[in-house]
Amino acid sequence: MSIVVRDVREHELDSVLALNNAAGPAILPLDAAKLRQFYDSAEYFRVAERDGNLSGFLVGFGSEAQHDSSNFAWFRERFPSFFYIDRIVVASRRRGGGVGRALYADVQSYAELRCPQLACEVFLDHGADPALLFHGSFGFREVGQNVMPDVGVRASMLMKELCSYAWVRDTYGDALPEVPWTGQSRRVARAEQRPTGT
C-alpha cells in the first residue's frame, strides 16, 4: 500500500497522457506533442506509483521558465519568484487515498529549497469545492482569479508561502548540499547525462 514518488520515465508518457485525458473537466486535455514538451522542458515532472501502478503525476515550472500557460503568465506578472504547479492528476480509483498529498509533499520539498512561494490554480466552473478544500488544507490561499483567454475557464489563483525558503537561501545560497533528497532539476540532471558533442 506504499506510495512511491519518482521522476517520470519516457516510456510512461502514453500512460500519463491517458491519465490526464481521463481526468475530466477539472484538467485541460493534452495531446502527445504538448506532453512531450512538458517532458523536455518541465523542471519537475514526477509520477506517483501505488502498489506498483501509475496512480498520478505532477508537472511544475520555476518562475523563470519559458512556459506558455496563461495562468503561469498571470502569476509572473504579479510575483517575482515562485514555483508553479501546472497540473496534478490522480487516477480516479486512487482519489482520496493519499496520492495527491504525497505528490504535493514532494513538490513542496523540492520548491521550498528554491522559491519563496508555491503557486497553482483551481478551475471554478466545474464543482471546485473538493479541490479548493484540498488546497486550503495544504496552506494555499486565493490571491486572485483569472479567466483563461484561450479556453474561457475561470480559475482561482492560489499561493502558499514556503517558510523554509528564507533559511535555506540564507544558509546555503545557490549551493545546496549534494544529498539525494535535495534533487536537481530534471533539465540540469538530463543535460549532465548527455554525451559531450550532442
UniProtKB/TrEMBL annotation:
The keyword Acyltransferase applies. Its EC number is 2.3.1.-. GO terms for molecular function: acyltransferase activity. The keyword Secreted does not apply. Gene3D superfamilies: 3.40.630.30. Pfam families: Acetyltransf_1. Keywords: Acyltransferase, Transferase. Residues 38-140 form the N-acetyltransferase domain. This is GNAT family N-acetyltransferase. It comes from Luteimonas galliterrae. The lineage of its organism: Bacteria, Pseudomonadati, Pseudomonadota, Gammaproteobacteria, Lysobacterales.
